[in-house]
């Protein structure tokens, strides 16, 4: 397969910070990016050659977008099938619909993970209050679709009132899963090239607050064999989806040291931002390489790293972070500060310990 050469245009669905950092990495390799997203004020368009602000149901805008690009990808997986199919009829779309479809729906995702031998927390699909009575308890009820950063999730505590919880939930379909008493959360990010080659970044430990990622530490303080297993499982999932691009897989590490897969994302991931300063080529460059059909880069890590998200008002600490020796500041240019909103992140490096 011929690579999509530098100088070509990469179309990106979604206009958030992941699109912004992808566009920056693409620009460094000589590509132009064209952002397609419904929000006029978006961080990705600011650093891209072109942007289309239109709904994912705007056929004329999708056709014009497809005509202006050489390949399309996503920084946001919840793009409707019709939009993806329309663009895919005109240019290659990487990753393809299979990967997107699987990550758009928690029930489909968990069935997929189970089907390829990745263990998950016990779970069931829930469509009614009656279903909910059989849910694992203590547990968590999550919306099947369009949930992120812990949004759309309700706790199921001992003696919960199924009717009241189902009313409060408000979504027509959900996934109820057992609450995992984990010792850590970790993630592995696999890149898969158009030629089927796979390169996996080192595994990080993720600390969440209120469902939102707070920080990632690399190397994850877990046994090397467990980290290696997480990498193998992420590569297996990318291969099973026949994905070209990136696949982030988040895991719980149980107290007994087992890996339970929680979520997959077929795109760059917040838990991979440490690669920007601790690897020769970061997750965004690796993503661009995969999507453009270029050879993948060596994912080797050059130092230990800790990435801390700047959420909401945290971003106001930028003067101090700029003054801090060795702190690497990344800001997304978002004008409005809202509680919990991802405004930027900081990477701190230290000498490699393993
Ligand atoms: P999710 O949207 O599924 O990624 O969930 C967001 C965060 O909520 C996770 O990273 C965990 O910290 C927590 N969480 C989600 N599901 C579970 C679970 N089954 N048991 C314990 N914690 C969970």
CATH overall fold name of the largest domain: D-amino Acid Aminotransferase, Chain A, domain 1
Computed Rg: 20 Å
Give start-end ranges of low-pLDDT stretches. none
Taken as a percent bin, the fraction of beta residues is 25-35%
CATH secondary-structure class of the largest domain: Alpha Beta
Task: Tell me what the structure shows.
This protein has 354 residues and is α+β, with helices and mostly antiparallel strands. The protein folds into 3 domains: 9-93, 3-Layer(aba) Sandwich (Rossmann fold), CATH 3.40.50.20; 122-178, Dna Ligase, domain 1 (2-Layer Sandwich), CATH 3.30.1490.20; 182-350, ATP-grasp fold, B domain (D-amino Acid Aminotransferase, Chain A, domain 1, 2-Layer Sandwich). Helix content is 27%, strand content 29%. It has 11 helices and 17 strands. The chain has helices at 17-28, 59-67, 81-88, 97-104, 106-115, 129-132, 162-169, 224-240, 275-278, 283-292, 318-323, and strands spanning 9-13, 32-37, 50-53, 71-74, 123-126, 139-143, 153-156, 174-178, 182-192, 198-200, 204-209, 212-218, 245-254, 259-265, 304-311, 327-331, 342-350. The strands form 3 sheets. Strands 9, 10, 11, 12, 13, 14, 15, 16 and 17 form a 9-stranded antiparallel sheet that branches. A 4-stranded parallel sheet has the order 3-2-1-4, sandwiched between helices. A hairpin with a 5-residue loop joins strand 9 (182-192) and strand 10. Helix 1 (17-28) packs across helix 10 (283-292), helix 2 runs parallel beside helix 3 and helix 4 packs across helix 5. The model has no long low-confidence stretch (mean pLDDT 96). Adenosine monophosphate binds next to strand 14.
């Amino acid at each position: 397969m011929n690579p999509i050469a530098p100088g070509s245009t990469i179309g990106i669905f979604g206009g958030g910070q992941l699109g912004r950092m992808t566009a920056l990495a693409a620009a460094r390799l000589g590509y132009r990016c064209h952002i397609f997203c419904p929000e006029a004020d978006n961080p990705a368009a600011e650093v891209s050659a072109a942007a289309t602000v239109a709904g994912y149901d705007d056929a004329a805008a999708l056709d014009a977008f497809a005509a202006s690009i050489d390949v399309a990808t996503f920084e946001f997986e919840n793009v409707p099938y019709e939009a993806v199919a329309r663009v895919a009829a005109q240019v290659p779309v990487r990753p393809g619909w299979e990967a997107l479809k699987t990550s758009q729906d928690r029930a489909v995702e968990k069935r997929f993970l189970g089907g390829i031998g990745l263990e998950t927390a016990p779970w069931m699909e829930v469509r009614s209050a009656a279903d909910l009575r059989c849910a694992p308890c203590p547990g968590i009820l999550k919306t099947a679709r369009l949930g992120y950063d812990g949004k759309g999730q309700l706790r199921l505590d001992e003696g919960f009132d199924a009717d009241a919880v189902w009313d409060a939930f408000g979504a027509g379909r959900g996934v109820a899963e057992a609450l995992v008493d984990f010792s850590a959360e970790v993630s592995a990010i696999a890149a898969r090239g158009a030629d089927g080659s796979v390169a996996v970044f080192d595994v990080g430990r993720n600390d969440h607050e209120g469902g939102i990622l707070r920080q990632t530490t690399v190397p994850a303080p877990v046994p090397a064999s467990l980290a290696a297993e997480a990498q193998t499982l992420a590569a297996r999932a990318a291969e099973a989806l026949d994905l070209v691009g990136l696949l982030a897989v988040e895991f719980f590490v149980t107290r007994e040291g087992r890996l339970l897969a929680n979520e997959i994302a077929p795109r760059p991931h917040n838990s991979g931002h440490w690669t920007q300063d601790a690897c020769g080529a970061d997750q965004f460059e690796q993503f661009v390489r995969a999507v453009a059909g270029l050879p993948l880069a060596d994912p080797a890590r050059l130092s230990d790293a800790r990435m801390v998200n700047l959420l909401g008002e945290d971003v106001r600490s930028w003067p101090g972070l700029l003054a801090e020796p060795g702190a690497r500041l990344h800001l997304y240019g978002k004008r409005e500060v809202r509680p919990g909103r991802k405004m930027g992140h900081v990477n701190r490096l230290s000498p490699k310990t393993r």
